[in-house]
Amino acid sequence: MSVSFQPLAVSAFTATSALGQGLQSQLAALAAARGGLRPNDFSSAPLACWIGRVDGVEEAELPAAHAAWECRNNRLAWLGLHQDQFIERALDARQRYGAARVALVLGTSTASIGATEEGYRRLDADGQMPAELRRPLIHAPHSLAGFVAEALGLEGPCLTVSTACSSSAKVFANAERLIRLGLADAAVVGGVDTLCDSVLFGFNALELVSPEPCRPFDQARRGISIGEAAGFALLERIDAAPQAPRLLGYGESSDAHHMSTPHPEGLGAELALRDALARAGLGVEQVDYINLHGTASLKNDEVEAALVTRTFPASTRASSTKGFTGHTLGAAGILEAAFALLAIEHGWAPGNHGCSTLDAACGPQFVLDGEQRQIDVALSNSFGFGGNNACLAFGKAVA
Amino acid sequence: MSALQVYLEGVGVWSAALADFAALKARVHGEEVTPPAARPPATRLPANERRRAPESVLLAVEVAGQAVAMSGRDAAELLCVFSSTYGDQLISDYMCATLAQAPAELSPTRFHNSVHNAPAGYWTIATGCQAASSAISAGHASFGAGLLEAATLCVAEQRPVLLVCSDIAGHGPLGDMSGSLASFGCALVLAPQVDARSLYRLDLTLMPHAAESLQPGPPTGAWHEANPTSASAWPLMQNLAHGEGACTVAAAETLALRVVMETPA
Q: What are the residue boundaries of the Ketosynthase family 3 (KS3) domain, all occurrences included (chain A) (predicted)?
């Protein structure tokens, strides 16, 4: 019954972030070293920090048929689904395989908690959720996947993965297993997380939020900037899309160390990396680019820089793109998977935006500026609270 | 349709009325059972963590510990999947109330305990488990989707998997939305191959387009209807307590999962 891992085609993908809507906006900003962070104009009470806010979310009203799911997080999902013809590609897959043969696996850390927060700010005279927000579906972690399943009319396995900041990286692993075992023929994966008071004030309480735009891997970095994003990818067997870039492997691990700080030697991160390389059958010298977790927190960047420096040859390029977009939390996995796929398709290794002087722990793999180079294999790292780690490996289609 | 076969090696259960799987079996057979202490003991956690951990973590760790102990396996070797419909509703209620009144006073500890994977985090730290761990949700199909995910992981990776499904009782305006009135957790240890530990073989089959058969019947007032996890897990938990049977649980909105218990050989 056991079948070994087979690479899958990423036959369509899309991303929307503070850099703009859709892949062209992302690519143009990455290539022009134009960041998307702005002074916080979002939280319900003032908080001096910078955020990666997506323009246009408020206008992306859901169609009346899906009104039960109305909330800002699902508006960002709806906006994201409409970029790069993703919704058409997903509906085409449903048509080709049948609604029950397309799985849906989405990552989110806070789903639509923003709507719950709003309800608590506007409780009715009886101290209950106001009438307009008395919709149980949006006050649950499955709000995002429930909405997207309905919007795409998918009836296969449907799952929300919520492992904090590794959520929408792990979805590739869930989907691959379902396809490998024949429980689905294709999968829509992705993730959406929107700005909300919970994460802005929560990370602030943990003293992890930078007062200035975040500076990943800078020796004077002062913490994270929080962002929001939506991203989706369509996974199919390679024969369905032989020219598409591929998911070559993935690795997952647990630190077993601490709820909110990484293992000091990066043990869990290294286990996930080794697992991904082993599954993909890759040596470290074959890795051209790594999109790092690189949150700009003191501890994460120190540990991750040391891992990259001791593991990869000088020819590998490594950067964090969180200086461009902010840390998009549960959406970071899919957003940065999209950046890794763009790097492969366009031969562009993004720079470490926001960083001016690299931390002493950074080896020759780290450079400040983006550069044009051939990228056949790209990795993406995502690490979450609770010591939850994921590493994805993508590659160019081979003839 | 596609089928998965996994071998059940351990079961954990906890509710306000049931201390463990033995208590569930006794109750299903009409015997009186002594209710457990108010807080799940969660003895797998170090004492200091046990004092500080939120109820959602204690509940998940308690049932996980029971199932792993029954299996006789080393917890550190098990891949793990933690499923919950609502996660820690009490912390969400606290956070939303605090954010509405005094956002700058939000507790950093409660914030990091609010992540959906907090039980997975505490469990892997307490057991030294460095294997992959996941935290998932699927609305009212969270139990069936969790079982499908755990069985998929078990067969795909050919490794034993711990599945933990739990929900605590809600509170405040959010509790009003969730309708979860009691706490309940259950856990299963699944293995890909038969061996001396095997209690039952579970044959799992996906049954698509099953919206009609997944419609819940009218409420009967039974205890297991007061919590989303016990409501969805009940058909299988009942069969496990009887030691035989076949049942259908929801794996997604219109996707049913047929679960047939067989003797392991």
A: 1-396
* Strand pairing report for A289-291 and A377-384: parallel
Task: Write down all domains in chain A, each with its CATH number in brackets.
Answer: 8-395 (3.40.47.10)
Shortest Cα distance from A159 to chain B (angstroms)? Answer: 5
Q: Which residues of A touch B255 (CB under 8 A)?
A: 100, 155-158
B209-250 pLDDT per residue, tens = 999 999 888 899 999 999 999 999 999 999 999 999 999 999
Q: Which of B130, B139, B254 is closest, CB to CB, to A268?
A: B130
Q: pTM, whole model, 2 decimals?
A: 0.98
Closest CB from A123, A183, A387 relative to B121:
A387
How many Cβ pairs closer than 8 A exist between chain A and B? 243
- Ordered by start, the domain boundaries in chain B are 7-199
Our CA-based measurement puts residue A57 at a distance from the nearest CA of chain B, in whole angstroms, of: 22
Please determine, for the modelled complex, whether the ipTM score is greater than 0.95: yes
Provide the annotated active-site residues of A. Answer: 165, 293, 327
How close is the nearest chain A Cα to the Cα of B64, in Å? Answer: 16
Taking CB atoms and an 8 Å limit, are A155 and B113 in contact across chains? no
Q: Which residues in chain A have their CB less than 8 angstroms from residue B107's CB?
A: 205
Q: Which CATH number applies to B7-199?
A: 3.40.47.10
Residues of B in contact with A44 (CB under 8 A): 99, 103
Q: Do A129 and B176 touch (CB under 8 A)?
A: yes
Nearest by CB to residue A181, choosing from B4, B174, B253, is: B4
Residue-level pLDDT, tens digit, chain B, 265 residues:
458 999 999 999 999 999 999 999 999 999 999 999 889 999 999 999 999 999 999 999 999 999 999 999 999 999 999 999 999 999 999 999 999 999 999 999 999 999 999 999 999 999 999 999 999 999 999 999 999 999 999 999 999 999 999 999 999 999 999 999 999 999 999 999 999 999 999 999 999 999 999 988 889 999 999 999 999 999 999 999 999 999 999 999 999 999 999 998 7
